[in-house]
Amino acid sequence: MKRYKQILLVLMALALLITGCAQNNDNADQGTEPVGQADDQSEFKTVVDVLGREVEVKNEINSMVVTPVPYGSIIYAIDGTMEKIVAVNPDVKSEYEKSLLSTLAPEFADVSVDYVSTDFTVNVEALLNLKPDVVVLWHVQEDDIRKLEQVNIPAVALDQGGGSNLEKTRDNIEIIGKLLNKEQQAENLNQYNIDVEDYFTAKQDQIAENEKPKVLYIRDKNLAVAAGGSFNRQLIELTGGINVAAGVKGSWTGVSMEEVLNWNPEIIYLSNFDSFQPEDLYNNTIEGHDWSQIDAVKNKRVYKTPVGIIRWDAPCAETPLFMKWLGQIQQPELFNDYVLDEDIRNFYKEFLSYDLTEQELNKMLNR
Description:
By secondary structure, the protein is α/β, with parallel strands linked by helices. It has two domains: about 45-180, Rossmann fold (3-Layer(aba) Sandwich), CATH 3.40.50; about 205-365, Rossmann fold (3-Layer(aba) Sandwich), CATH 3.40.50. The chain has helices spanning about 1-30, 30-40, 70-80, 90-95, 100-105, 125-130, 140-150, 165-180, 185-200, 205-210, 230-240, 255-265, 280, 295-300, 320-330, 340-350, 360-365; strands at about 45-50, 55-60, 65, 85-90, 135-140, 155-160, 215-220, 225, 240-245, 250-255, 265-270, 300-305.
């Protein structure tokens, strides 16, 4: 009997030993290294940029360098903050100081301009110390992209063609949404853009029946104008005007005063790339120019383009509002089924979570 008990104890010990070995083998199969790899994978995601590059970035982006000027404001419209932006093009900072972002995003005041030049070039060596999670730049910045890849700083390219094309701008916004895990916010912003474009597209037959005013969009006192390849030409024509500089090559292209006199525009828009005002044309105070014989000047139809969270001259989150503003100047009798002030207020409430004051709205619209 005693021997039987001893044999039974040995068998039980063997069973426990076999069970323990099996558990150890299972743990080995699911050991710390594979678990660690899974955790690492969850920290990253892949974003496909406009060049078709699959860029691995952190799942949670906390530091961004942004070279394209309008995209600081677009990031704010999508993310609701500019706290993730650590460096920008110096032109962004100058725009910020005269826009509503100085009120909405005071955190942006201390963002560095030391890592990006006004020509969009990135100081890659300096960025090694900054260690950003991602650099957002134009697709034509091939040298910067290559240098950033060499030092393992993620670079996500946006389409610079977004500067002349509504659809490409929306593609860029979609990429920003993916970077920030704010896909729905980006989709909502893009859908509003599409809805407004569709509104004007649906009225093209009616526009064709109306007399279209001759329009000139001027960038600066040197007479760089919105030419045939410009974003502004697309919007002018979509909203019922004729861009008199459509036959000029390029995007922003210099012309002569003689050409302006020959075109004799009925409406002139002055950009916010320059500080000039309608009164400068009305009072003929720009040296070397004579505006007195231009119909737009004689009829007091010179308009300064609005500034919201950024100047509306460039593709931005407020481009749909820009279209509505242009439409009511160029075809007021046709585009009279919306109230611009209300639409601007609603946009700021819905997309920027901000209630515009009357004073801010009047300042935006230069009245």
